[in-house]
Design a protein that fits this description.
Strand content: 15-25%
Radius of gyration: 19 Å
Oligomer: single chain
Number of helices: 10
Bound molecules: NADP nicotinamide-adenine-dinucleotide phosphate, ligand F7E
Strand order of the largest sheet: 3-2-1-4-5-6-11
Length: 325
């Protein structure tokens, strides 16, 4: 039975990836942070508690800030595959806590790579890189596009990305990065723009909210479905040769388009409810991200399955069900 260790298992992608690996027959170990409130709600479908011996799923306390805990866990788990999904992942927040973001999103990756290198160089390592690293580089963006990060978050991700390249070249490790464009789902954090919009549209529909305040409506993103994207992560670690891949849909929409589609799905006109608030604008914006996933299609046989309209509908339906109870 292959063994996987996932950091960020309590996040959107970590929960989908854990489910995928369990269906593939893996023993899955996840890293969670201690919190004063329960932060494992996305794992409710697969985790019933430490007494549940029937599952191949285990949670461990730790933190990407804590090298000794990471080294101990890697030594105890002896994973075949490590997926580093943990991060301070919010771009706007990274301008407010840049040092923390650099420490977790950037140096945290170094700590985990070192823990893996010192344990076994044959462990395969996946790094959650981001299209945000392309930043101001014009679309479409592929594996060959230069990085031009526009936030502390994307600078930290670029550092982590280059570390993986370096560990691959220096130590012959199977360390790869998926450069993933935005991917969303009903499990998306509520402060990311897609979920903020679908949640608000649902609330407004049932009379629990009056208006939705947003920042820049002109930004364009290549939005896909998270459930599709975790499959690409796994595929990258099953290849003969380690290589970095861009993962996206190849289609972009603006934040305005997303509003129109989400409110329109509920037979509402978004312009009646959306207002601008400067506080949601960023010191430096990323205007236009559009992935070119040709290499992933050709070498991994991967392509995005859920369309933009299906994704918006899935998220609105889920939020409507949640706010209607
Ligand atoms: P997410 O929902 O924000 O999840 C982040 C995870 O990291 C959570 O489990 C969080 O734990 C954990 N974490 C945060 N700080 C930590 C620390 N100091 N030590 C250990 N764990 C920590 O993010 P996501 O959307 O699933 O994304 C997964 C990864 O892909 C992230 O690295 C993100 O930057 C990257 N990425 C995401 C996208 C996207 O569109 N979703 C695109 C490209 C790259 P808590 O639950 O305790 O907060
Ligand atoms: O913003 C604009 C905002 O925060 C998307 C993370 O998963 O994907 C994500 O980063 C756009 C930006 O995602 C609001 O200015 C307008 O242009 O949903 P977001 P992001 O910054 O693209 C990348 C690939 C990652 O790697 C990250 O981890 O929407 N926008 N008004 C707004 N954004 C937010 N959050 N809130 C607003 O009110």
């Amino acid at each position: 039975m292959p063994t996987a260790f996932i950091t960020g298992v309590s996040g959107q992608d970590g929960s989908y990836l854990a489910e995928l690996l369990l269906t593939k027959g893996y023993q899955v170990h996840g890293l969670i942070r201690r919190s004063s409130s329960i932060n494992t709600w996305r794992l409710d479908g697969i985790y019933r508690g430490p007494q549940d011996r029937n599952k191949n799923f285990f949670l461990h306390y730790g933190d990407l800030a804590d090298s000794s805990a990471l080294a101990r866990l890697v030594r105890e788990i002896q994973p075949d595959e490590v997926y580093n999904l943990a991060a301070q992942s919010h771009v706007k927040v990274s301008f407010e806590i840049p040092e923390f973001t650099a420490d977790i999103t950037g140096t945290g990756t170094l700590r985990l790579l070192e823990a893996v290198r010192m344990n076994s160089r044959s462990t395969r390592f996946y790094q959650a890189s981001s299209s945000e690293m392309f930043g101001a580089s014009p679309p479409p963006q592929s594996e060959k596009t230069p990085f031009h990060p526009r936030s502390p978050y994307s600078c930290a991700k670029a550092f982590a990305h280059m570390l993986c390249v370096n560990y691959r070249e220096s130590y012959d490790m199977f360390a790869v990065s998926g450069i993933l464009f935005n991917h969303e789902s009903p499990r998306r954090g509520e402060t990311f723009v897609t979920r903020k919009i679908t949640r608000a549209a649902a609330n407004i529909k049932v009379g629990k909210q009056d208006l939705l305040y947003l920042g820049n409506l002109d930004a364009k993103r290549d939005w896909g479905y998270a459930g599709d994207y975790v499959e690409a992560m796994w595929l990258m670690l099953q290849q003969d040769e380690p290589r970095d891949y861009v993962i996206g849909t190849g289609q972009a929409h603006s934040v305005r388009d997303f509003c129109e589609t989400a409110f329109g799905y509920l037979d509402m006109n978004w312009q009646d409810f959306v207002r601008h608030d400067q506080r949601y604008e960023r010191p430096a914006e990323v205007d236009y991200l559009l992935g070119d996933p040709t290499l992933a299609r050709e070498e991994l046989g991967w392509s995005s399955k859920v369309s933009f309209e299906e994704l918006v509908a899935m998220m609105v339906d889920s939020d409507l069900a949640a706010v209607s109870t």
